[in-house]
Write a structure and sequence with these properties.
9 helices, 19 strands, alpha+beta, six-stranded mixed β-sheet, about 25% strand
Length: about 375
């Protein structure tokens, strides 16, 4: 059956040009495939002023416990210049055992593997006793406002309760058995402005150069580590991402300097406590000599970890059984929709190799898509039918 062929599913999904927030038929296709396999499905659209409407898909097979949820997204980033691609980015072309196309690894290939694995398992085990669900959004690569976070609250309001979740993001650096993500760092962005007084560079005593003050404050932010790391996380890291005075003249001292920084932080911090530490460092460095302001962008990305236990071990064992590699447990990388799911149930991330995500000629090995499907099938078997 095509519905149980992960490569055919991935090809079809890639041919849907579902650049955020356009659904472009991707969720409709997933709904059709799951409904034909006996899943109860619902498409839900959420809206927020100032952001695009987003379609989402919820599906469930079974009514009992335990309830294992698969989560993912069918939206993709823009392909860029299509002329630079080996094949049309939405053609889903296979060449030499490799599937090319936008979303091949991030994460339509992973979604296809989930669909195929679940359908195969349900067909082979019609009375498995628990529940298998899908939470698919079209808003992960965009604002992430009208997607997973709202779909979870919608499901909760209907009385849905999940025991565990697998998010199919591409977690492996090089090989399919490399890595499982058991958590993610948080993200906090700050905007720093230093006020000076504009003047002629030949008469610095009549001006106040904000660049000097900015250098002083940045140096204070970078002088000492934020922390030494924790059991599952590397040390928190602050990176300066912009520094600008908007000054077109080389003989004018500017009136203002602006900088932006981003901190990927571990579970030592909450956004509020980290912001307070940054404010403390800035105040100590500025004293009465530097006039400045700092503002923090709103964030919904806090650090979290799913502590290793039976479920994590079950997934590790399944990966090792099919790849011969014992995957490392990691909290590296950027943010994902796992930051929303963790408020509803324990969540881990495991998917394809992510080397080419967001790149020209994004691709996934056909053999990896098939192996990932087999891994998910094994997880389902051991989860619902432990020996």
């Amino acid at each position: 059956m095509t519905s149980a062929d992960p490569v055919a599913l991935a090809e079809t999904l890639i041919r849907c040009p579902s650049v955020t927030p356009d659904e472009a038929g991707a969720l409709a296709f997933c709904e059709k495939v799951l409904a034909e396999a006996g899943f109860a499905t619902e498409r839900v659209t959420f809206s927020t002023p100032g952001t695009p409407d987003v379609e989402n898909l919820y599906a469930r097979c079974g009514t009992g416990a335990p309830y294992l949820l698969f989560a993912g997204h069918t939206d993709v980033v823009p392909p860029g210049d299509a002329g630079r691609w080996r094949h049309d980015p939405f053609s889903g072309t296979i060449e030499d055992g490799v599937l090319y196309g936008r979303g091949a690894c991030d994460m339509k290939g992973g979604v296809a593997a989930m669909l195929a694995a679940a359908i195969r398992f349900v067909m082979a085990n019609p009375g498995f006793g628990g529940s298998i669900g899908f939470l698919l959004t079209g808003d992960e690569e965009g604002p992430a406002v009208n997607g997973t976070v709202k779909l979870l609250e919608w499901a909760k309001a209907r009385g849905e309760r999940f025991d565990h979740c697998i998010l199919g993001e591409p977690t492996n650096p090089k090989h399919l058995g490399d890595m499982i993500k058991i958590g993610r760092r948080g993200s906090l962005t700050g905007h720093l402005t230093v006020h000076g007084r504009q003047g002629h560079v030949a008469y610095p005593h009549l001006a106040d150069n904000p660049v000097h003050g900015m250098v002083r404050l940045i140096s204070a932010l970078l002088a000492e580590p934020l922390d030494a790391g924790t059991a599952h996380f590397a040390p928190s890291n602050l990176e300066m991402t912009t520094f600008d005075v908007g000054n077109p003249a080389s003989n004018v001292i500017p009136a203002e300097a602006r900088a932006t920084f981003n901190i990927r932080f571990n579970d030592t911090w909450l956004p509020a406590t980290l912001a307070a530490e940054i404010e403390r460092r800035l105040a100590a460095a500025a004293g009465n000599a530097v006039r400045y302001e700092v503002a923090f962008a709103p964030t919904n990305a806090t650090a979290f970890v799913t502590e290793p236990g039976d479920f994590v071990t079950l997934v590790q064992d399944a990966v090792e059984a099919h790849t011969g590699r014992r995957p490392a447990l990691s909290t590296t990388g950027g943010t994902s929709d796992a930051r929303f799911i963790k408020d509803h149930c324990p969540v881990i991330e495991y998917g394809l190799v992510g080397e080419t995500m967001h790149q020209v000629d994004e691709c996934a090995r056909v053999s990896d898509i098939e192996a990932l499907t087999a891994i998910y099938e094994t997880v389902l078997g051991r989860y619902f039918m432990p020996s």
